[in-house]
Amino acid sequence: MIRPLVALSAIVAMTAIAEKAAAQQAADATTLEEISVEGRASGAGTGQGSGAPGVATNDGYVPKTTRTGTKTDTPVNEVPITISTVTQSELEDRRPQTLEEALAYTPGARTGAFGFNPRFDSFFIRGVDVGFTGVFRDGLRQFTSPSGQVRLEPYGLESISILKGPASSVYGASSSVGIVDLVSKRPTDYKFGEVEVQGGSFDRKQVAFDIGGPVNESGTVLYRFTALARDASTSIPGYPDNRVFVAPAVTFQPNDDTKLTLLGEFMDSKSGGSSFFDNDTEPYTLKDGTVTNQPTGVSDSALYNSDYNDFSVKQGRVGYEFEHSFSDMVSVHQNLRWSALSTNERFGTTTYAGLVKESLQSLAADTYLKTRIATGPVNHTLLTGIDIGRSSYNSRNRYNFAEIADPDLPEPTRQEQTLIGAYVQDEAKAGPWRLLVGGRHDWLDSRYFAPSTITTVVDPAGVPTDVLNPSQTTKQDKGAFTGRAGLSYVTEYGLTPYVSAGNSFIANPGTVINGGVAKPTRGKQVEAGVKYDVPGHNTFINASIFWLKQTDGIVYTVVNSVNQQTQLDFRSQGFEIESNTSLANGINVKASYSFIDTKITKLSPDTEGNQLNSIPKHSFSIWGSYDVPTGLLKGFGFGAGVRHTGSNFGDDYNRAVIKNKPVAYVDANISYDFEALDPKLKGVSAQVNAENLLDKENQVCSASYCYLNQGRKVIASLRYRW
């Protein structure tokens, strides 16, 4: 185990020194020309986008363009929607190990609500649970099943774009608050390579490499191969964090008009089946300091057994991105991905255990025509497209059996969902005005099969009788129309005020409520804000106010001392501000503040009007880094950050006994580039990252259950790049 050896300094205050910015605004024709260029490859660690859907072009921590908002390369400061970005530079500095960790400094994102639980990436944005309904990969939805969620390996990412606004009108079924788009690493048009070894807390041992470049002299074939292997434990005894990850990619670009990129991935990972802590070794405390006097519906969870506590996931995906330009004005794009995963989860105690096995297969395909036309003084970028999403899963489980061996499992529940959507979008530009209008209709075909079961009923005389519950097939075929509209005004001073509104629709996978499949979740949001691309500085600021309403969202809640799924209506309103800065003198700063006020409008009579559990009203974060460019400390890099989460309730009943107190965590890093010591060591660097540096291991409660977060985690790496 590697322990921290030094306490890292606080980040130097941001200075006003910066290089001269590029021209503030290009002419209309120039902007259109930028949009038509789609295909510059990204380099390792540069944060420069490759032009594929969702790829952001960034300068350090500062986002410049992104396709996530509109599927076109529109500058971030012009899109009338709030978009947050985790750039490659930020990923390099902070070295997150999960999607939750990667989003920890994103305004409006609630991470860590379920303590240390790396089985799933569970997080909220503006009060909306996004993990199972709003995560996309390269512009295509990642389908999920009840216990199946595609795991993320951050080492395989180029960047992350967080679109905060209903996006169903262009992306189809998705979260009420928008999407989180994970952008894969892609082939580069120059040769590069890196190999890295890591060690750290909890016996962590990891090796990774990333190589790529042209295959032939003409550069018409490019490749990239990214891989990682890890063997590690965690803060919970018997709870591993192991994985093997490989991600090949090849690009064929025979000419400037045609491009085809093949993307693949396979990952085999193993973690624990239950992260509930053991009361015998980790004292469980509620606010009143007791365990026995818990309020009704509050659970300290089952005691885990390290001999019967594992969660194995095998997942893979293969797909392509194709684009062809017929002219400067018309191009066709098609993105397709097939993916599959299988899970095997075991958890329990010496007297009680559970076993869940699931398999999921899905296909996502999006085809659209992009047309650029002019009507008088107005330039238009039109998208007309159709996409198809299909998923199918089997789930078998058994609970409440003695932990002796894996039991026989019953016939599986199954679900098949197909969504076909047709959409149109227009980005209109006239002088400083930008208008975004889009609409879409989705056709849903869903089939849910529940097998027959046998339950035992005891009559008043004490005589047990077995009752057969017949199998049941439930169908859903109600589609929906969704739309969005936004307007922004781009001034010559770098300020861009904007307004937007939209709605969303998503059919819920595998959720049965009151004997029937859950209704689709719907949402709508209105927002107004201002963006500021600071002239003369590489600084971007976004501030916005929003009002959001979601109906029939899926949540867990305790009713009559039983934790069960139900559907929830709520509204969320608030304010966000975010600033990203990267200066020529080596300083990078990312800072944000969020105010989110939630209110339950339909759940149960005794919760209506309450705040959503686990969602704080106030949160803020700041992360800064500094690479010393000259002098005695040249080659050193320093980084530090603080994440603050305000007080929030541990259940929807808003009981004070499990109210979560405000908490702040400190993260830090230190790095050294050995080229500053000797030019012969060019490409060799070392870095140490510490998460939760002050080792705050506190309790957090969500949905009436309480957990422990992970304490200090330190990871040291040695890397060679060429």
Summarize, please:
This protein is mainly beta and 722 residues long. The chain is built from four helices and 40 strands. The protein has a single domain, classed as Maltoporin, Chain A, CATH 2.40.170.20.
Characterize the structure shown.
The strands form 7 sheets. The protein has a 22-stranded antiparallel β-barrel. A 5-stranded mixed β-sheet has the order 4-10-11-8-9. A 3-stranded antiparallel β-sheet has the order 1-2-3, with no helix packed on it. By secondary structure, it is mainly beta. It has one domain (56-721): TonB-dependent receptor, beta-barrel domain (Maltoporin, Chain A), CATH 2.40.170. Keywords: Cell outer membrane, Ion transport, Iron, Iron transport, Membrane, Receptor, Signal, TonB box, Transmembrane, Transmembrane beta strand, Transport.
